[in-house]
Write a structure and sequence with these properties.
Structural class of chain A: alpha/beta
CATH topology of chain B: TIM Barrel
CATH architecture of chain B: Alpha-Beta Barrel
Number of domains of chain B: 1
CATH superfamily of chain A: Class I glutamine amidotransferase (GATase) domain
Oligomer: heterodimer
Number of helices of chain A: 9
Order of helices and strands of chain B: EEEHEHHEHEHHEEEHEHEHEHH
CATH superfamily of chain B: Aldolase class I
Strand order of the largest sheet of chain A: 2-1-3-4-13-12-11-8-9
Distance between the termini of chain A: 30 Å
Helix content of chain B: 25-40%
Largest sheet of chain A: 9 strands, mixed
CATH architecture of chain A: 3-Layer(aba) Sandwich
Number of helices of chain B: 11
Distance between the termini of chain B: 13 Å
CATH topology of chain A: Rossmann fold
Number of strands of chain A: 13
Radius of gyration of chain B: 17 Å
């Protein structure tokens, strides 16, 4: 059996319990994220997957996904307009931020766009987003790059050197919250986590079988998974 | 290390994948979704769908296939053809496209690039450039409306100037399509691509001329592009994507296998 087939087998064999909510941030890649989860779920399980900005549904979910593309300022403004900032901060179930969703979990982003100040984010993972120093390599960092994952449960079954799809120009630096690293000019956080909050800088929904495995890992997470599994020692 | 990307391009016309020679005489290759899924499974790193009639005939692509592709495949894809407004771009992205590629409309109104970047971020704004070698003046120049031979026209832009301009205005990636080479499978235009590479701070995708595996090796090692786009060699089964990637890996080129 090839590695991809083996991964697919694991994915098919694990049942998904509880409800999964993708927060409707109003951003452009919502469908891609939803489709990626739908591909992993049976027809019955899909009934427990929702894309919504309904506060009660988000609070009640077994696990929550915070997607995002575009700029930090626009995405945070959308969360504020929808009264979701306090709601997300109070979540205790597993929360997965993807790409800009990851960046929104941090304290602040230096991606200013048209504004004169840094963008204040959710402050759930104490690190700050700054421009990637690509040391002359093309930017944005766009394409398939290798990650070095930790033992965090989101990476169950993911090997060192696995390729995932990145598209970004800003990044979280390496810190005690780093759970996977990647390199494009400099080393940076390919993923960060603190408590129940997990952020992936890359796009698992666009990362073929490797990304699907991570999403499936997330789908089988509950509050107790994350409580059991820390701390996550990074591989050097 | 960032892998070099192999990008099959599916030219779309009236809901089917087609392929012409030097932008002419289109023949139907197959249906969109099954071909897209096949390429994804075979190891393509990304797909580009280009509606070759859209710009030239002033109409927008039927978008229903965009969401059907997004539902099915788990690699990124870019949609090109006739996107002239923020709303048209928003629609493609909302249906699940990861990037949108702009060619002729950016030449008509370059401010479109800035407006798209402000709205969606530069990471999803790809600029396609159809460049040809003008042998009389020994220079590279940009053509517009190449989807339809009768509408195709020269522009005032020299290719290097346009490459600088679109980066200044905020594109996230450039596809350089070298027209003299397209469809004839004589190899990528290494000389031109190397020259453009030196001007290009964003990712650069080479397009036009792939005929053999060695052509891919050359364009990555000699022109140092980030990705290589090709159509007919994949559609016609001349090159198998997995075999190509093994070949590139054996030649010390970083690829995702």
């Amino acid at each position: 059996m090839s590695k991809i087939e083996a991964l697919s087998q694991i994915i098919e064999d694990t049942a998904v319990m509880g409800s999964t909510v993708i927060i409707d941030t109003g951003c452009a890649n919502l469908s891609s994220v939803r489709y990626a989860f739908e591909r992993l779920l049976s027809v019955d399980e899909r009934k427990n997957l929702a894309v919504t900005d309904d506060i009660a549904a988000i609070k009640a979910a077994t696990r929550v996904i915070l997607p995002g593309v575009g700029t930090a300022g626009a995405a945070m403004a959308s969360l504020r307009n929808k009264q979701l900032v306090g709601v997300i901060k109070a979540l205790t179930q597993p929360v997965l931020g993807v790409c800009l969703g990851m960046q929104m979990l941090t304290r602040a982003s230096k991606e200013r766009g048209a504004t004169a100040t840094d963008c204040e984010c959710l402050g759930l993972i104490p690190t700050d987003i700054e421009q990637l120093d690509s040391k002359g390599l093309p930017l944005p960092h766009m394409g398939w790059n290798q990650i070095t994952p930790s033992a965090h449960p989101i990476f169950n079954g993911i090997d060192t050197g696995a390729y995932v799809y990145f598209v970004h120009s800003y990044r979280a630096p390496i810190s005690e919250y780093t759970i996977a690293t990647a390199e494009h000019g400099e080393q940076f956080s390919a993923a960060i986590a603190k408590d129940n909050f997990i952020g992936l800088q890359f796009h698992p929904e666009k990362s073929a079988a490797v990304g699907a495995k991570m999403l499936k890992n997330f789908l089988t997470m509950t509050q107790s998974t994350l409580a059991r599994s820390k701390p996550y020692q990074r591989q050097s | 290390m960032l892998a070099k990307r192999i990008v099959p391009c599916l030219d779309v016309k009236e809901g089917k994948v087609v392929k012409g020679v030097q932008f002419r005489n289109h023949e139907i290759v197959g249906d969109i979704v099954p071909l897209a899924a096949r390429y994804a499974e075979e190891g393509a790193d990304e797909l580009v769908f280009y509606d070759i009639t859209a710009s030239a005939h002033d109409r927008v692509i039927d978008k229903s296939w965009v969401s059907r592709v997004a539902e099915r495949i788990d690699i990124p894809f870019c949609v090109a053809g006739g996107i002239k407004t923020i709303e048209q771009a928003r629609e493609k992205l909302a249906f699940g496209a990861d990037k949108i590629s702009i060619n002729s409309p950016a030449l008509t109104d370059p401010s479109l690039i800035e407006r798209l970047q402000d709205e969606f971020g530069r990471q999803c704004i790809v600029i396609g450039i159809d460049s040809y070698y003008d042998d009389i003046n020994d220079s590279y120049k940009v053509k517009q409306f190449t989807g339809d031979e009768s509408a195709t026209k020269d522009t005032q832009w020299y290719t290097p100037d346009w490459v600088e301009e679109v980066q200044k205005r905020g594109c996230g990636e450039i596809v350089l399509n070298v027209m003299n080479q397209d469809g004839v499978r004589q190899g990528y235009d290494i000389k031109q691509l190397s020259m453009i590479r030196s001007l290009c701070d964003v990712p650069l995708i080479a397009s036009g001329g792939a005929g053999t595996m060695a052509h891919f090796k050359e364009v990555f090692t000699l022109a140092n592009v980030d990705a290589a786009l090709a159509a007919s060699v994949f559609h016609k089964g001349i090159i198998d994507i997995q075999a190509l990637k093994r070949y590139l890996r054996d030649n010390n080129i970083a690829v995702r296998i």
